[in-house]
Specification:
- About 60% of the residues lie in helices and about 10% in strands.
- Helix 1 (about 1-20) crosses helix 3 and helix 4 (about 130-140) packs across helix 5.
- The protein has 6 helices and 5 strands, in the order H-H-H-E-E-E-H-H-H-E-E.
- It has about 200 residues and is mainly alpha-helical.
- The strands form 2 sheets. It has a 3-stranded antiparallel β-sheet. The protein has a two-stranded antiparallel sheet with strand order 4-5.
- It folds into 2 domains: about 1-110; about 110-200, Winged helix-like DNA-binding domain superfamily/Winged helix DNA-binding domain (Arc Repressor Mutant, subunit A, Orthogonal Bundle), CATH 1.10.10.10.
- The two termini are about 35 Å apart.
- It is flat.
């Protein structure tokens, strides 16, 4: 089992080894990845790349842990623990890069959040939000592209898990309406069993 998993992981980590051989690991960037790009389309491209890598890392980690839970041989378990540790390291780095590109896209799209005035601006247009609307949008913006379950949103945005989910849905509807008025190409999507996420353009 261990050898199968290791082989399955091999193509996934080859890029890391190639970067190490060229010195690219110092910046922890993929080939042709340019953090200074001035194009939002580049940010969208790298968001897609890193979202795929995050998803693959999670899948591999789950598979490795499942095999680990069923393995009875000490040698197999030791090798799997090493595999999981390596994959978790990659996952943490991919999440970090994904967060960077979400922030970069926010800037390149010309979007700005102002906590003091509770406004969100896009180029020469802006909308004013209520306190709870702003807290909700800010929370989603900090996790842009990542789905958050209703209870998680209630806690992180409003610090109150006792509020009914219907209240959250009401504010989501209000935010969707205001963001549509802003015309910035950002929207709040809902995926069953995964929750809500703030996405740009054609992302879902």
């Amino acid at each position: 089992m261990t050898s199968i998993l290791t082989q399955y992981c091999l193509s996934f980590v080859q890029v890391e080894e190639l970067q190490a051989s060229t010195g690219a690991e110092r910046l922890e960037l993929l080939d042709h990845e340019d953090p200074t790009t001035a194009y939002a389309s580049d940010a969208r491209h790298w968001i897609a790349i890193y979202r795929e890598r995050v998803a693959l890392s999670r899948d591999l980690i789950e598979r490795a842990r499942e095999i680990l839970s069923k393995s009875a041989r000490a040698r197999d378990m030791e090798a799997l623990v090493i595999d999981v540790s390596l994959l978790e390291s990659h996952l943490a780095r991919y999440r970090q890069r994904l967060d960077f590109w979400y922030g970069r896209q926010w800037a390149l799209e010309g979007l700005e959040l102002d906590r003091e005035s509770r406004t969100v601006s896009h180029r020469d247009r802006s909308i004013r939000l209520t306190g709870r609307e702003f807290q909700l949008l800010e929370t989603l913006a900090h996790r842009a592209g990542t789905h958050m379950r209703p209870q998680q949103l209630l806690v992180e945005a409003w610090r109150d898990s006792r509020l009914p989910e219907e209240t959250l849905r009401t504010y989501i509807v209000r935010l969707r309406t205001k963001l549509a008025e802003l015309g910035a190409g950002i929207r709040i999507v809902n995926r069953p069993r995964h929750g809500y996420a703030l996405v740009f353009g054609g992302q879902d």
